[in-house]
Amino acid sequence: MFSFLPAYYENSRIMNADMNAKGSELDSLFDTLDELLKQFFVQTATWGLERWEQELGIKSDYLKPIEQRRAVVESKLRGSGKFSGRLVKNVAEAYDGGTVNVTFEPQAWSFTIHFVDTVGIPPNLDDLKEVIEEIKPAHMKVEYEFSYLLIRDIDGVMTLDQLEQEPLLNFAGGDPVGQ
């Protein structure tokens, strides 16, 4: 701020104190404005996430991690329009954060959501199931396919130390599906 003042103020203790006080207040104002701007976007919202949930008719669950709450809001925003594979894929990827493949079997009146990039069961699968039930036609059945680590995936690739760090849920048979 001193660059806007005459040079003879640079040595004044009073002007230094005044500019420091005003400068810290302006910094605080800009930080507050930046934080407010973040609330207008689902991916960066924190305290404003409750408002997003309220607007979309989603019950706020404060016990869930903020990333899962954001995924619910984003999928609700993506989940409008005509039911299609693209719609299901967009919604599922909002929850998972990875690649999802959707395949339809019209003769069986069903479709399958396969989690390609995620190893094991996604942490917020129950939320995804709830949203999929809302957007899919009532006569269609949905199935979920998960990817797990198999012996061929780890044999000669992972060390024993790496295997010990890997959660048991990521291995086939590590946890029953749906529990």
Structure description:
This protein has 179 residues and is α+β, with helices and mostly antiparallel strands. 45% of the residues lie in helices and 13% in strands. It folds into two domains: 2-80, no CATH class; 85-146, Alpha-Beta Plaits, CATH 3.30.70. Strand 2 (110-119), helix 5 (125-135) and strand 3 (141-147) form a beta-alpha-beta unit. Helix 4 (85-96) packs antiparallel against helix 5 (125-135). It is elongated and about 85 Å long. The mean pLDDT is 85. InterPro entries: Phage_Mu_Gp48.
Task: Give the tags.
Alpha-Beta Plaits; Phage_Mu_Gp48
In short:
The protein has 179 residues and is α+β, with helices and mostly antiparallel strands. 45% of the residues lie in helices and 13% in strands.
Our count of helices gives 7
N to C succession of SSEs:
HHHHEEHEHH
**β-sheet strand percentage:** 5-15%
- Considering DSSP H and I runs of 4 or more, what fraction of the residues is helical? 40-55%
Distance between the termini: 60 Å
Number of domains: 2
The total of beta strands comes to 3
Strand order of the largest sheet: 1-2-3
Q: What's the gyration radius in Å?
A: 25 Å
Structural class: alpha+beta
Low-confidence stretches: none
Average pLDDT number:
85
Main β-sheet description: 3 strands, mixed
Q: How would you describe the shape?
A: elongated
InterPro entries: Phage_Mu_Gp48
Pfam families: Phage_Mu_Gp48
